[in-house]
Sequence to fold (174 residues):
Amino acid sequence: GKWIAFIADAQLRPDSLVQAINDSINTLPFSKTRDAEQRNDSEIYVVAVSGGEPRKVATIPGEESNLGWSPDGKWISFVSRPTRVTNARLMVIAPEGGTPKSLTANWPYEPAQYTWLPSGTILMDAEIGGRTALFSVNASNGQMKEVINGRRVLRGFSYDEAKQHVAFVATSIA
Fold:
């Protein structure tokens, strides 16, 4: 692609300053109000492969993590957590900017890890009531289908280069 996407402090402050602020906040006593407040810890930026100034893709409340690119380069995927006490969401946004789209908006669980398939579908694992499942997520409309399930905990998802096969470790909970 022609862009490099990265996550950085919302104000592009140096990492050492951000860490010092976080260290100070971590010494404060627990505050339910502070944890439930909307915050803006980080943002997604893109910079041209050839160099130049980073450009913020959008102002997205909360903290973003786990960036990924769709195979066609039309979407940046990420996990967003608006506050420290709300569920994380799998989201996509165009690298040009705009409004991010939640693929798991009304879902009661949180995404763990995910990967894009060459077809443009996303495979995402999640903890579901004490078990783990692997889901196929349509990146256009967020429609999900459970593709690997059962009463077991699944860990260490790994895919072959073509993403045709998945390997994992399964522990039965029965």
Observations:
- The longest strand covers residues 121-128.
- The helical segments are 15-26, 32-36.
